[in-house]
Write a structure and sequence with these properties.
Layout: H1 24-40, H2 45-53, H3 72-85, H4 87-108, H5 115-122, E1 127-130, E2 146-149, E3 155-164, E4 172-179, E5 188-195, E6 201-203, E7 218-227, E8 232-236, H6 244-278, H7 292-306, H8 308-320, H9 328-355, H10 365-373, H11 383-395
Parallel strand pairs: 1-4
Antiparallel strand pairs: 2-3, 3-7, 4-5, 5-8, 6-7
Helix pairs in contact: 1-3, 3-4, 3-6, 3-8, 4-5, 4-6, 6-7, 6-8, 6-9, 6-10, 7-9, 8-9, 9-10, 9-11
Amino acid sequence: MTSPDAAPSSFPSPLDEPRQILTDELLETIRGRAATYDRENAFFTDDLADLKAAGYLQAMVPQHLGGAGLTLRETAREQARLAGAAPATALAVNMHHVWVGVARYLHERGDSSLDWLLEETAHGAVFGFGYSEAGNDLVLLGSRTEARPDGEGGYSFHGTKIFTSNSPGWTRLGVMGLDDTTDPDDPRIVHAFVTRDGGGFEIKDDWDTLGMRASQSCTTVLDGAHAPADRVLRRLAPGPSLDPYVLGIFTSFEILLASVYLGIADRALTLAVETVNKRRSMKTGKAYSQDPDIRWRIGTAALALDGLWPQLDLVAGEVDAQVNRGAGFFRSTAGLKVRVTETARQVVDEAIRCSGGSTYFNRSELGRLYRDVLAGIFHPSDDESAHSTVAQAVLGPLED
């Protein structure tokens, strides 16, 4: 067992060049569709087909199971590149990668309970994340959804899930619900997977949002969606848990989510630099890139952005290297997510301020990034829960 403060010799150097699946040509093709998907509030159908054809959905599946074998760190870097081209596409694909990341996390630690997921991904399955519930600030620690036992080890699920990204595209949906009937004195949070062709659910056509429109993260009403016994992964007591399944979800979700918003910020800064080099001041006749105030704003955005890449590499690299941080991973990954999403908003804001009033039009890519980046504040861990997590790690629990 590796000590919490030590990294094994295989720990990746920040100078290691990440392997890539997404070509520059594919990213430019995807970038070319993003505005249309956003304007029409349409699902990223062609993007998904191209990403499948490129083998991108198998990125983290180990090579011996039919995938590309990318690490979490490498996949996070790829997700940032994809987000720079089409944030909503990256966000929706992210939820599939999260589940593959969980399965990979368990597989590498000797737990084969999700190996079937890796194998099905290698054969084309697309996974969705059906956990979020309106008003459930417990997130993984509790559920408003009912998990009703079928008497054979399986469960049917009854409840409403929100922000179910990639709603038109998933073939398998990870869900959780509360079983408080099998033993009322010992309720359990049931984590399982249901299939699209198994029915028992309705996807509402209600995704009409400010940003991240192509993700089509529609509300999903579960009304008897059934998971057989071999697709029930965990029955955990409500509340905090260090079960590897929970750690796998938390670390994969937070790291990959952060990568999407880091990609948005990186693209915004690139666009701002291009713009201020082109725009010229009538007062001075010089490009705005020569204006001291503009240079200060660009410098501020770049300084903020530069601090995010090493943190993403470090936290993802620790998961890849199986550094044993235990509960410390809740602090490090929640902190990463909040720092990236908050900083990304600041970077995009500086880019907007540098680039002029044209960014207020819907045709502006920067204007679209401005809308997309706002979604970061709604994903768990939110600002409040992350601060609570870190405060508990530093100060200990609140007194009764």
